[in-house]
Task: inverse folding
C-alpha cells in the first residue's frame, strides 16, 4: 500500500518520456519504463495502455522572450520562445473508436486490484486491468468471546473455535434437529467501515462419525449482541471426516444489509452458527477456526502476486498464533495472514502449549513454574473427583459418593475410581493420579 504513490510518480515520469519518443513502435500491453516508453498509449504503472495519452489539459508555466524591431510604419515582427512545463490529468479526447473509462489495475494478476485509474480503451479493460474492483480481505482474527454455555448449550469447548488448528469445538447432533447456536464474538478489527464491501465467514467443519454420511445444513448469521441482523447464509454439504473449509458470504456480500447495521469492528458484533443434520446422522460434528474476513481494501502490493492482504502481525516465536511485542504492518497472502499472530497476547512465547483460550490440560509446569496455560494469569485447577463409595446395583460398578480434589494442581494424589472388574469398591488408580492444570 505504500508503494502506490511511488508508482504514480514513476508513471508520470514515463508519461513524459513517452511523449518525447513519438516514433517508437507500439508496446501496447507490455511493460514500460523510462528507457522503454510507449508510443500509441501511455505508460501507466509500468504497463503501456493504448490510447491512454490523450491530449490532456495541463497547467503550465511558461516563460517567453521576445525581440522585436519596428520599422517605418510601425509594423513589428516578434519572435518569441517559450518553454512550459505542465502536468495534466489527460482529460482530452481518446483516439477514434476508444472511450475513456475507469479501470482497476491488477498488474501482478493476483486477482486483487489497486486504486482506480482512467484510461482510453475500446470499452474492455486494458491488459492487466479489471472493470470492477477486486478487493483484498482483511483477516478479523479469531473469536475471543464465546456466548454459549449453560444447560441449554450443547456445544462443547466453544473456546476451541479460536484458532486455525484442529482442536475443534463439537456438537452432538440429532437427525433433523437444529443444534443450539454457537455464538462467537470478540474479533479484532481496525478497518474503516466506510470501505467495507463484503464479509465472509470461514469455518473448518468435520464429521466425527466415520461411517455415516453426514448431510448437514449449516446456517451462519451475523449478530449485534444476541440479535441476528441482515440475512443468514446457508449451505448444505456432506461433511467429511477431515477438516474442510466452509465459506459463507463473500467479497461482495453485505449479508442483506447487515454490514450497514453494525460494524464488525464493534464489541457487539458476533457470528452465530447452527447445524442441522438432514439425513440419519446422529453423531458429533466438529467446528474449528471460525474466521471472519472483511473485503474492502486495495492490493497492498500490486507488484507481488503472493501478497495482497494488509495485516498487523506480532512476533510469534513458538508459532502458536499468539504473539508478543509491538505489531508490524505488512502485506501478506491471505493464507499467510491467517497463519500469523494477529494478537500480541501470548503469555509465554517460548511455549506453544501456552496461549490465550487454551483448553487443554497439562500436568507439567511451564518454565516459570506456573500451570497457567491459558494465559489468564492464574493457575486454574481442574477439579478431579475421587470416588469414596461405589455400587453395582445397576449392573455396572458406578460411583455413589465422591470428593473433589481441587487444590493439588500438578501433584500426585490418591485418586480412587470405581473399577469395571473385580470388587466394586473405590480403588486407587495410577492412570489419572496427577491433577492436571489448565
Ligand atoms: Ca494485484
Ligand atoms: Ca498483490
Ligand atoms: Ca506465540
Ligand atoms: Ca505461547
Result:
Amino acid at each position: 500500500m505504500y508503494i502506490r504513490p511511488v508508482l504514480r510518480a514513476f508513471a508520470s515520469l514515463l508519461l513524459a518520456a513517452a511523449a518525447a519518443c513519438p516514433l517508437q513502435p507500439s508496446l501496447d500491453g507490455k511493460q514500460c519504463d523510462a528507457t522503454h516508453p510507449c508510443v500509441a498509449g501511455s505508460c501507466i504503472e509500468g504497463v503501456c495502455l493504448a490510447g491512454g495519452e490523450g491530449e490532456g489539459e495541463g497547467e503550465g508555466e511558461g516563460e517567453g522572450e521576445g525581440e522585436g524591431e519596428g520599422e517605418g510604419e510601425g509594423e513589428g515582427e516578434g519572435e518569441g520562445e517559450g518553454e512550459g512545463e505542465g502536468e495534466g490529468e489527460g482529460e482530452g479526447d481518446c483516439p477514434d473508436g476508444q472511450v475513456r473509462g475507469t479501470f482497476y489495475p491488477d498488474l501482478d494478476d493476483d486477482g486483487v486490484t489497486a486504486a482506480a485509474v482512467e484510461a482510453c480503451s475500446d470499452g474492455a479493460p486494458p491488459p492487466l486491468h479489471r472493470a470492477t474492483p477486486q478487493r483484498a480481505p482483511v483477516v478479523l482474527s479469531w473469536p475471543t468471546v464465546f456466548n454459549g454455555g449453560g444447560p441449554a448449550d450443547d456445544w462443547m469447548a466453544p473456546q476451541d473455535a479460536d484458532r486455525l488448528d484442529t482442536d475443534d469445538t463439537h456438537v452432538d447432533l440429532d437427525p433433523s434437529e437444529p443444534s443450539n447456536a454457537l455464538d462467537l464474538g470478540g474479533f479484532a478489527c481496525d478497518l474503516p467501515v466506510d470501505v467495507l464491501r463484503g464479509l465472509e465467514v470461514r469455518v473448518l467443519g468435520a464429521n466425527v462419525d466415520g461411517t455415516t454420511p453426514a448431510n448437514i445444513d449449516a446456517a451462519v448469521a451475523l449478530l449485534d449482541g444476541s440479535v441476528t441482523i441482515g440475512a443468514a447464509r446457508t449451505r448444505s454439504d456432506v461433511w467429511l471426516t477431515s477438516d474442510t473449509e466452509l465459506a459463507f458470504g463473500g467479497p461482495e456480500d453485505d449479508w442483506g444489509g447487515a454490514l450497514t447495521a453494525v460494524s464488525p469492528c464493534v464489541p457487539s458484533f458476533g457470528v452465530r452458527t447452527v447445524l442441522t443434520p438432514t439425513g440419519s446422522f446422529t453423531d458429533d460434528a466438529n467446528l474449528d477456526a471460525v474466521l471472519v474476513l472483511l473485503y474492502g481494501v486495495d492490493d497492498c502490493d500490486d507488484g507481488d502476486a503472493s501478497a495482497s492482504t494488509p495485516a498487523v502481525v506480532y512476533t510469534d516465536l513458538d508459532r502458536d498464533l499468539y504473539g508478543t511485542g509491538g505489531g508490524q504492518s505488512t502485506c501478506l497472502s491471505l493464507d499467510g495472514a491467517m497463519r500469523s499472530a494477529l494478537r500480541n497476547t501470548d503469555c509465554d512465547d517460548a511455549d506453544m502449549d501456552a496461549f490465550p483460550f487454551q483448553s487443554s490440560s497439562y500436568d507439567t509446569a511451564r518454565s516459570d513454574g506456573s500451570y497457567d496455560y491459558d494465559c489468564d494469569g492464574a493457575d486454574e485447577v481442574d477439579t478431579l473427583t475421587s470416588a469414596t463409595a461405589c455400587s453395582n446395583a445397576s449392573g455396572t460398578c458406578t460411583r455413589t459418593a465422591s470428593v473433589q480434589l481441587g487444590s493439588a494442581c500438578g501433584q500426585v494424589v490418591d485418586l480412587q475410581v470405581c473399577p469395571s472388574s473385580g470388587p466394586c469398591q473405590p480403588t486407587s488408580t495410577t492412570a489419572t493420579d496427577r491433577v492436571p492444570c489448565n
Q: What stands out?
A: The radius of gyration is 33 Å. Confidence is low (pLDDT under 50) at residues 1-27, 51-91.
